[in-house]
Amino acid sequence: MSVRVTKGTLKASEPRENEAERHGEEIEAQRPRNIPANTTPTHGFALEVDAKIKSQHPTLEAAMSVATELKRKFPMVQVTIYDAAAKTRTLVEAGK
Asked: Which helix (H) or strand (E) holds 62?
């Protein structure tokens, strides 16, 4: 004897007025901007880890503080700071 099991269908509740629009705006506001892989920054300073851009910072001091902390935690990775205005890279050495 075989038993036949059927599943009922679930219906989603009707969206309230303007709720879907506000929800989409909240998601866009929370989502960080991803850096495209094939472009270099045009302003500010970028933190590169093993030749891959990981974050951007408005000032050299902010980028340097993040870079030195990262280099202190992980001394084997190559950390550089890319200056978009001068189009130069500065290697961050491990602090002792």
From this structure: helix 60-73
Secondary structure letter of residue 76 according to DSSP:
T
Pairwise CA distance, residues 80 & 48, whole Å: 5
Helix (H, G, I), strand (E, B) or coil at 91: strand
pTM of the model: 0.60
Q: CA 65, CA 21: separation in Å to the nearest integer?
A: 39
Tokens of 46: 């970028």
Checking if the pLDDT of 40 tops 70, the result is yes
- C-alpha span between 93 and 96 (Å, rounded): 9
Least confident among 4-8, 19-23, 36-40: 19-23
DSSP alpha helix (H) spans, the chain: 19-30, 60-73
